[in-house]
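ok so I'm stuck.
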Amino acid sequence: MDGALRFPRAGSRVGDALRRVPRAFAALLFACVAATAAPARADVEFEVQAGHGGVAVRGSATPVSVTLKSRDSAAIDVTVELRENRFAGAADVVHRRTVRLPPGAERREVFLYPGPDSAGATIDCRVSTSPRTTVIHQTRRGDRGELTVAGPGIDVVLPSSHTIAVVGDSRKALASRLSSASRTDALGGIPEIDTLRWLPLAPETLRLGPLALDGVETVLLCDPDSETTGSPAETDALLDWVALGGRLVISLGDNAQRFASSPLAPHLPATWSGSEPGDLVLAAESLGADFGKQRPRGAAPGRLVRLAPRDGAAPPRSAWRDALFAERRIGRGRVILLGADLRALAVLLPGELKATRPIVAHLADLDAWDRQPPAGGMPMGRTDLREPLSELLRGDAFRPPSRFLVFLGLVAYLLVVGPLDWFILRRMKKERLTTVTFTVAVLVFSVVAYGASFLLFGADAQTNRIVFASIEDGAADGRLVARVHEVVGAYQPVRGTRELKPGGPAAILGGALPGIGQVGGVGTPDAIRVETPDAAAQRAEVTVGFRSQRVAVIEQVLPTGRAIDARREGSLWTVENGLPVALSDAWLLLAGGRAVRFGPVAAGGSATGAAPVGTSGLRSQLERDDLGEGGARWRQVLARAAIPWGLDSGGPEFEGLLRAGIARVPPGSASGAVLVAFARESPFPLSAAGPGATYVVLTREIPLR
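replied:
not stuck anymore, here's the structure
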């Protein structure tokens, strides 16, 4: 019937549903395949390496590298923060850097962090990501976008230790075979001071030059090739470190032919054309080794490189064969070229000190221990420089008020809260108000005393600076390089922040000078926060507490076109000041304990000195100078840091200053001199501005011809 009610068949709905099942299954299968093929969520892995193979020199700039690896298809921002893990007290310096990590990339970020003060210290590393993602370190995971781990423990050595950084000795043959020269009794018998440490050196840190090698005495390149210091920038950085007092030893081997084309080769003291077969036993003996009764029978075949010394190379020493040894002085340092592979020679040497010490003498300045004072002969006052340096940094910031004003204030306070208060209330017949008036008087005087203390007990914000600058001749003709240690004492009457902006490549070392330790800080526990877009391009923010002073030590290495110089014309000595600042005083230290004093020297001017006097006479002259305000007190303090007045002022503290280029020893031969000058302005750009005093001591080695 046309008007009849019709019902759909149940079977048709079931059929339609069954027909949709393959489509849904296909969609689900496609989604699973797509999910499997999609990249995993963004994970960031990182590893931390501190120091040179886990070893750092106390208070010196130390490379800390963080390796980052991305496992994502999108770029991600990664922030790395380093701080020393101190069991008591806050970290002195915190380094922070944010980098953009490309998809699937791996990069290594190098920081210059101050060497810790104590052995076993660690550098905590905190890695955070934006956008948040999983952060992985070995077996640890941070699923909320950040992870903090303690880096491996650091073995800390004193600045006075002999440190040899080695490139190319992956099997540690030298350290194991020459260990007999590292015994305490081998170097003089001073426990924990007389040590020789072998440090593995990552080749990529050579580009940072003097900053990454701070505290290192010797760099040993074993069988280098053309890739070693493969760029002129790396070569200049390494040679600048040599000019500032480092010792570069190059041991040629199988790759000598390739190394001849490297950028470093033209600056070496000899040339060579290749290697030839030779006897390694004879080579070791020509370098000073004494086998004694353990001399191997017969020859030990090996490859030797015959050297032809260049003009300007030091004359060969009588005990060594000139064909295997060449030496050149650059500034305060030296470059030594050996025509034999030290790794092969070390295998032949016996374990006796008699055989190993002459070889080690090529690598370390063992004669430095001759400066050690006799037992029990070191006056304590000669090496403890922290207090006088702190006095200079504090300046007028913590100057106490006039005793007369303090006395008047106490008298007024006693009169008001005592007899005067009682006399007035008694006249008014209001003796019962004594409790109220006494309380009000105490409160008023407390407020007045607190307000007056801003004027009497503390100055306005001040930035006092002590600058130690060492100027040396570089490897190329006319090149000058300066190492500058700027000690900044920032004072704030109220809590605030200061910014430190070094003018060149720099490392911020907290508040410690090498060999001395912390100087001058007063009441500020806040860390120095360093932003480091690059290892040597550091900027810092210093938080200074209420009526506190924060001390920061900044080390810079920069080229300079001007210097101080001295020359002899007959019996007269002349000093020339090529710097844009006037010198308050200038001395020339000569061999035999003699010195010439020139007095003030104008900027761009010169002065002639009188006949040399003994250094004891120079010290007497300085002590007789005017010690009033603005007098010679600051020069006395800086002279104690820069010059040992005698062998009794040596010791590990002074050796630390010596390695850093702050202190100088008068020359031991008539062919050289040390020029020391003092100024009240810095010839180099400083990292901190603001009102305050600046004290500068400049030093330079002067070869006398």
